[in-house]
Automatic annotation (TrEMBL):
InterPro entries: Di-copper_centre_dom_sf. This is Tyrosinase copper-binding domain-containing protein. It comes from Achlya hypogyna.
Length: 238
């Protein structure tokens, strides 16, 4: 599960990079956006060296004798790791099909598809097709929400933001479980004791009215009902 999750994120980043960041300068935030680490004591930029320490020491793995051979030749700056196809001998590509193929070839012009699949390959990106109904239904839902955003005079980026808000309410009101904050132990480990998870903050801002959904409520709840048989704006009652 761990590796499947990270491979999926890497695949989506590959599509994002191809569509939105390829050939941009390394200091462009679409390529790498700077961030802070160690509770704000350190700023990470595109040219920062990735800090991966040997277990139980303060030595970086690409200089420690025991681990150095495994990292020999691997780019060690954040910007250099942005494009998986430009890692020298360690470069790799994905074999994509259906909707994933459409995403990387059509980018912002992509429309809902019934087909998708992906595997890692050593050759340039390969494109083919498969089918899963539940994923196809989800993409039709996304297209309906994006179309509603367009009809509401929102930009693509704004429509995507509103779609996330609608999804957040659906997870809170329609599906089993709840949206939860990180546990205290994790917060302490990550140096974020005074922070909440993004999902919790988003949910709270929607509910308190400081960040309302900008789509017409009668329209997006109808789209939810059509796909998930739940409005999403109020909790499900049995």
């Amino acid at each position: 599960m761990f590796w499947s999750h990270h491979a999926l994120i890497d695949l989506l980043h590959t599509i994002y990079y191809e569509c939105r960041a390829k050939n941009l300068p390394k200091n462009d935030p679409k390529v790498f956006s700077s961030c802070s680490a160690n509770n704000g004591q350190k700023t990470i930029t595109a040219t920062s060296v990735v800090n991966m320490l040997e277990d139980g020491s303060s030595n970086n793995v690409d200089v420690t004798p025991q681990t150095k051979p495994w990292f020999e030749g691997v780019p060690n700056k954040y910007y250099d790791l942005a494009d998986a196809t430009q890692l020298g001998a360690f470069s790799y590509n994905y074999e994509m099909s259906g909707f994933l193929r459409d995403m990387i070839t059509q980018c912002d012009n992509v429309v809902a598809s019934k087909l998708e699949d992906a595997v890692i390959v050593d050759t340039p990106h390969v494109l083919r097709a498969t089918y899963r109904k539940d994923n196809a239904d989800e993409r039709l839902w996304e297209k309906a929400i994006m179309d509603l955003g367009r009809a509401s005079n929102l930009t693509v980026s704004q429509s995507e933001t509103e779609m996330v808000k609608v999804q957040t309410l659906m997870y809170d009101n329609c599906f089993p479980g709840t949206i939860q904050d990180f546990d205290p132990e994790f917060k302490k480990l990550m140096g974020m004791e005074n922070m909440k998870s993004h999902d919790v903050m988003l949910l709270e801002s929607i509910k308190d009215g400081s960040n309302p959904i900008l789509l017409p409520v009668d329209k997006w709840t109808a789209i939810n009902m059509n796909t998930y048989h739940c409005r999403g704006d109020v909790p499900v009652t049995n």
